[in-house]
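Exercise 7.
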Amino acid sequence: MFRSALVASLIAGSAAFAPAARPASASSALQAASPFTEEIGAQLPLGYWDPLGICADGDKENFDRLRYVEIKHGRVAMLAVVGYLTTYAGVRFPGAEDIPAGFAAWGALPLNVWVQMGFTWSAMEMINRDASEVHGYKPEFPGDFRNGSKINLDGKEKPFLDFGWDEQSEEWKRSKRSIELNNGRAAQMGILGLMVHEQMGNLDAILPFSH
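Solution. The predicted structure, written as C-alpha cells, is:
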C-alpha cells in the first residue's frame, strides 16, 4: 500500500512539471506578439514572461524603466546577500564586534553608525544613477551608469571605470548583462529567503556557519 501511494505521488509530482499543450500554445502566441521576446532576460525556461501584461502595450520606454528598476534592485540585493552572509559568519569592522547579525543589528547600531550609513547611501544613490540629462550622454542600456566619464591614459582619452567594455563584442556584452540580471534575480529571492528564515527562527538549519 505504501509503495503504491509513493509511486502515485511520484507520478503526480512528475505530471506537475509536464508541459500542457494548450497553455504552451498561448505562451508561444504571447511571445510572438510581444516586441520584447529578444530582450536580455527573456531566456529559458520561461522565455519572455509577463503574466500580468504590464508591458502588453509594447511601450519601450515603460519596459526600459522597469528593466532599470529590476537591475537596480538586483544590484542592491547582491550587496545585501553578501553583507548578510558576511556578518552572519562573524566578520566585523573593528569596534563593531558586539553588534549582532540580521534584524537584531538595527536596534544595536550606535547613532554615529546610522549617520555614516546615511551619508554612504546618499553618496551611492547620487553616483550610481543615470545622469545622462546632466552630462549629455546617452546610456548604452538601462543600468549603464558610466555617464560618459573619461580618463586620460597615455595621452589617449578612454572611458573611466569602463574595464574595456567598449572594446568587447556585442555577444560578450549580452552574455555579461544576462549574467548580471540573473544573479540579481537570484539575489532578490536569496535575501528574501534569508530574511524569512531568520524570522521563522530556523536560519541555523540552512546556513553552514553560525555567528
